[in-house]
Each structure stands twice: as C-alpha cells, then as structure tokens.
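User: Second chain of the day. Same drill as before.
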Amino acid sequence: FELHRLWLERERQDEFMGTLINAWLQAGGQAWGVCAGESYVDVGTVHGYREAIRLLGGQATPPPTPVPAAKLEQSKA
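Assistant: Same format as last time:
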C-alpha cells in the first residue's frame, strides 16, 4: 500500500520496480533481501532475455560447478 502511494505521489513515473524501491529507500523505507529461486536474469538485456527463454523452456545453461577458494588460489599460482 505504501509503495502504491509513493508511486502515485511520484506521478507514476516509475516504469520499473527498482526505481520505485530506490525512491522508497531514499525516503527512509526499509527493505529485506530474501534468497529464493534458482536463477535471476535481467530481461532488459539481449543475453538476459535469451537466458530467460532458455529457463522457461527448460534448457537453461547449467550453473558453474562451485570450486573452493583454496583451489582457485592454487590454480592462479
């Protein structure tokens, strides 16, 4: 409800949720992040759009295999 009121006060100028949330935070609002889901893609980019299509079609590129930091340091030496 409060975000809707802020959106109206800002004359509905926020096309994206991110700009409205940033304005909310700048005005003293609070937000919490929650790790949920399996993937995030920015559909505002060509790469992100293509990845979203792959995800929706069940053909997403597999995530990279996690490597312990110690092994990464050894491979750089």
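DSSP finds four helices and no strands in the chain.

User: Great, on to the next one.
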